[in-house]
Specification:
alpha/beta; D-Maltodextrin-Binding Protein, domain 2; 3 domains; 8-stranded mixed sheet; two-stranded antiparallel ribbon; 12 strands
Length: 288
């Protein structure tokens, strides 16, 4: 029973609320609340401060959370160790990415080698995915910036050229190249703050002491593409994200050779787990 209560506590701490924890553990919210109440009563310790829109860990609960993180990480490693007795024949591989298309070739090769493994792909930005790594909700994150090495094990997944794109009806659509200064003088459609391509562009614009004439910020990649196709501005895109679309025209930058790197990241402490080593092995063999 104590194990179930600790598991409920850990789920609430990780997910920031009782209802999300219930969904994660496939329990009802009253069941989660009951586990927490019994744990608090048994040890006379308040674990959560109920706030509007969620819960906050007490100082004592933060110490307990540090212990349960190690506890459930050890449990995952124990289960992985036991699974080695019969090789990688079953289990689940979870990968988080901003765009699943970037990791699909690696997933395809993995499933060809290990067809009985279930693969789960989840979406999120870099910050969200690194957080999910630490919660042991995913095995890998695909992100555009290489995080600090001591905590993470990283492998380069791909390098892609950054290009400009316009509507097929735009005057620039008759050209193959554009300068960065010419680009900056146009209305520009950008992804939200945190987008890797946005960050690369703004850094280079600032370095050259240029300024963007007019910026429209759009949250999703697909919506940004539609805005450009509709003639609302020019945009930038990595070559990996280009899909055939007669409404759009791609251009190289004549004076800016930028690439966007994407990294496959796992926790360094889990890099020796069998399923993780299998994925890393496939990636390394491809790069030889």
């Amino acid at each position: 029973m104590r194990y179930a209560q600790l598991k409920a506590f850990h789920a609430v701490a990780v997910n920031g609320g009782f209802s999300k924890a219930a969904g994660r553990l496939a329990l009802t919210q009253p069941a989660i609340s009951d586990h927490i109440r019994k744990l608090e009563e048994a040890y006379g310790a308040e674990l959560f401060l109920r706030r509007r829109g969620g819960v906050e860990l007490t100082a004592f609960a933060r110490k307990l959370f540090a212990v349960t993180e190690r506890m459930f990480e050890a449990e995952a490693e124990a289960l992985e160790l036991l699974s080695r007795a019969k090789g990688i024949e079953e289990g689940t591989l979870s990968i988080g990415a901003d765009a699943a298309t970037h990791v699909l070739p690696l997933v395809r090769r993995f499933l060809e080698r290990y067809p009985k493994i279930q693969v789960r792909l989840v979406a999120g930005n870099s910050a969200q995915l690194l957080e999910r790594l630490h919660r042991f909700e995913i095995d890998f994150a695909v992100i555009a910036e290489m995080p600090p090495q001591p905590t993470y094990h990283t492998e380069l997944l791909r390098d892609d050229e950054i290009k400009a794109f316009t509507a097929a009806t735009h005057p620039f659509a008759r050209r193959a190249e554009i300068s960065l200064a010419e680009f900056a003088q146009q209305p520009v459609v950008l992804r939200e703050v945190g987008s890797a391509t946005r960050g690369l562009l703004l850094t280079e614009i600032a370095r050259r002491s240029l300024a963007l004439a007019n910026v429209m910020e759009i949250e999703s990649r697909e919506a940004a593409r539609e805005a450009v196709a509709g003639g609302m501005g020019v945009g930038i895109i990595s070559s990996a994200e280009i899909v055939p679309d007669a409404r759009l025209h791609m251009l190289r930058f004549s004076d800016w050779q930028a690439t966007m790197s994407e990294w496959l990241v796992c926790l360094a402490a889990r890099a020796d787990l069998q399923i993780i080593r299998a994925v890393l092995g496939l990636l390394r063999r491809r790069s030889r």
